[in-house]
Amino acid sequence: KYSEQSFNSQIEAVAICRTPYKQKFGIPRQPGLVNVRGWVELAPHVNNIDAVRGIEQYSHLWLLFCFHENLAQGWKNTVRPPRLGGNEKLGVFATRSTFRPNGIGQSVVKLHNVVQRNGKVCLEISGMDLLDGTPIIDIKPYIPFSDAIDNASGGIAQSAPQLIDVQFSQLAESQLAEYSSENKVADLKQVVNDVLAQDPRPAYKKAKADAKIYQVALYDIDIFWHLNNDKIEVIEIKPTS
Ligand code: SAM
């Protein structure tokens, strides 16, 4: 305990984030990169429409959350950011690493709607970079005049990652169309395209020939893909078993 500044606070999740991202691999590395819808479902102890009164005036929200899937792995003073090819080390507080002393992440997301579903107050959002089931520990409005800083320096992350072209086999194309209409997921092909265009592979894989078949889980389907002439090709999709 850091006694001079210790505080007695039991942090309890105020919401759970529901997203199509069913595993960490493939989730965009920052918010705002892929236009996918998700939900923030208020937890029972704050599940009151009054708790979000006025929130619809804001176009964007800050979500503070816990990297709950990585807590057990602990943290180190230095990390190897994927952007640097995994070769160089930076201090944990100089990065957005998911392995942190308190395991807290923060993301700006777009707010679309406030609704009540099955007795739960839900915020419909998009652009999140969160795993399905992520505990949200606070929700705050994004305030452009203060939060958006012109000419800020982005360190090792000056601009969005470069995108890679994505192609679809005929089989994948027809499977996606079928799944879209059966499950009423609009724009599924576009979502798959935009997720894979981020090139989820670790940096060291990108540097050399790569014959591996990868799998990304979105909604309740597994998407199988590989590298084909420096482009990503979606081979087929299967229902998640
Ligand atoms: N925007 C946030 C931030 O800067 O604090 C998160 C950035 S972090 C690099 C984004 C990655 O966190 C995603 O690509 C995903 O792999 C991982 N992630 C998302 N939700 C998670 C969770 N609940 N537990 C562990 N890792 C998670």
From TrEMBL:
The keyword rRNA-binding does not apply. CDD domains: UPF0066. Pfam families: TrmO_C, TrmO_N. The keyword S-adenosyl-L-methionine applies. Keywords: S-adenosyl-L-methionine. InterPro entries: TrmO-like_N, TrmO_C, UPF0066_cons_site, YaeB-like, YaeB-like_sf, YaeB_N_sf. Residues 11-151 form the TsaA-like domain. SUPFAM superfamilies: YaeB-like. Gene3D superfamilies: YaeB-like. It comes from the Bacteria. Belongs to the tRNA methyltransferase O family. PANTHER family: TRNA (ADENINE(37)-N6)-METHYLTRANSFERASE. This is tRNA (N6-threonylcarbamoyladenosine(37)-N6)-methyltransferase TrmO.
